[in-house]
Amino acid sequence: MTSPLLEFDQVNKQFAGKAVLNNINLIIEPGMVMGLLGRNGAGKTTLLRIALGLISQNTGVVRCLDSDNRQLSPACKQRIGYVPQQPCGYQGFKVNDAIALHRSFYPNWDSTLEQTWLSRLELDGNALVSNLSGGQQQSLALIMAMSYRPQLLILDEPVSSLDPIARRAFMSDLFELALDTGSGVLFSSHITSDVERIASHIAIIKDGEVLVSGELDSLKEQIKIVPNSASDPLPGATILHQSQRSTVYQASSCNLRSKKPEHNITNLEQLFVELHQ
Ligand SMILES: Nc1ncnc2c1ncn2[C@@H]1O[C@H](COP(=O)(O)OP(=O)(O)OP(=O)(O)O)[C@@H](O)[C@H]1O
After folding, report:
1. Is the terminal CB of the chain with fewer CB neighbours within 10 Å at N or C?
2. Annotated Gene Ontology MF terms (predicted)?
């Protein structure tokens, strides 16, 4: 049995005594592409930074590539790709020189992949990094994080500045990378349609807790939104959220006997909005 690439076990984090993450349990296995969703300030960046040991949890255990997140060795870090929300660095360099320097740190660098993406994302190798647009800088950061085919890729809103064409190209490559190489990807995003298109798994964080997590297709089967006026709520199903209008249930297959098509979720955005009513 392969061990998880990343595992959060009962992780808590507070800033100045204020709880930001509560009892987080998450697992990223090889081949998984997990989309992390949550409102602004929900704790997504905090969770991703804890995974990499950039900040420490208060309690709980995080295992990243079989190591404690707070003691990642240089060899371990070579197997991880990370793109922060606001990538920066290499400001005085030309794109080609920045990539050459970055490449020198990674023996597994795949120059073919680098070239494919440079042309697909239409980056000019002779341009100064400091003159690139926000989206182009984000593209460069993605190329740098993925060209050494990391085993674990952690991306904080990786495509927020990319145009729809670049976004689609990048997202499909991301999925292929995970499937082809058995890598795992954990990425945060507010673009639910992107998450729906490429993620195999999702986790929705609300009030510092993982409210929903699992395989996306299974969750679409299991989760039902039932108006409070309905006479036949799902017996035995777990209530995920209740608003004045409706109740969101997560049902196992045995309590789906009474399912009605009109209670199915139509897309991830609908579920996300419903959970935050
Ligand atoms: N270093 C810090 N010191 C104090 N509070 C912090 C710190 N970093 C984050 N926070 C707080 O923790 C909470 C979660 O922040 P985080 O950046 O993880 O949210 P997020 O889900 O990534 O938000 P967004 O979608 O807006 O990027 C916020 O209330 C934020 O103000």
Report:
1. N
2. ATP binding; ATP hydrolysis activity
- Cα–Cα distance between 18 and 237 in angstroms, integer? 32
Amino acid at 228: N
C-beta 43 within 6 A of ligand 1:
yes
Which band of pLDDT confidence, cut at 50, 70 and 90, is reported for residue 107? confident
Residue nearest to atom 27 of ligand 1 (CA): 40
Query: 14 CA to middle of ligand 1, Å?
Result: 10
**Is the shortest distance between the CB of 42 and ligand 1 below 6 Å?**
yes
Instruction: From the options 3.30.420.40, 3.40.50.720, 3.10.20.740, 3.40.50.300, give the CATH code of 6-206.
Output: 3.40.50.300
3-state secondary structure of 80: strand
Distance 208 CA to ligand 1 centre (A): 10
Query: b/e per residue, 182-204, with b = 16+ CB within 10 A?
Result: ebbbbbbbebbebbbebbbbbbb
The CA distance from 69 to 57, in Å, is 9
Q: What are the backbone dihedrals phi and psi of residue 275, each rounded to the nearest 5 degrees, phi first? A: -70, -15
How high is the pLDDT of residue 262? Answer: 75
pTM (2 decimals)?
A: 0.91
**Mean pLDDT across the stretch 234-244?**
85
Q: Determine if ligand 1 sits within 6 Å of the CB of residue 15.
A: yes
Measured between alpha carbons, how far is residue 261 from residues 80, 206, 223 in Å?
42, 27, 12
